[in-house]
């Protein structure tokens, strides 16, 4: 048995989204795959790979909490992407 990561073709990703959204009682149409993957890629490359899933979780949490304030997924995603693109390791000690 190998520990190689699974590679999903695009149609498998769509099938996963369909099933996962149904399981979580979400509307699949509300999930912009390219936007979410772009944010994950920005964070993975600008910060660290393990930060990508954490950041997408934070993105969803922020949207859930701040949508009543007018926050949008696109705006929050852009904010995270900018943060990732400008991230420097020594920033953590500055805060």
From TrEMBL:
Pfam family of the protein (one): DUF6457
Superkingdom of origin: Bacteria
Entry-linked InterPro entries: DUF6457
DUF6457 domain: residues covered: 9-90
Protein's name in the database: DUF6457 domain-containing protein
Source organism (scientific name): Leucobacter denitrificans
């Amino acid at each position: 048995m190998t520990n190689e990561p699974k590679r999903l073709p695009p149609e498998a990703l769509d099938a996963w989204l369909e099933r996962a959204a149904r399981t979580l009682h979400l509307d699949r149409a509300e999930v912009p795959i390219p936007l979410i993957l772009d944010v994950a890629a920005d964070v993975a490359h600008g910060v660290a790979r393990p930060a990508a899933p954490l950041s997408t979780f934070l993105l969803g949490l922020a949207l859930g909490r701040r949508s009543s304030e007018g926050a949008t997924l696109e705006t929050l995603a852009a904010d995270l992407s900018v943060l990732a693109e400008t991230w420097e390791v020594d920033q953590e000690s500055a805060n």
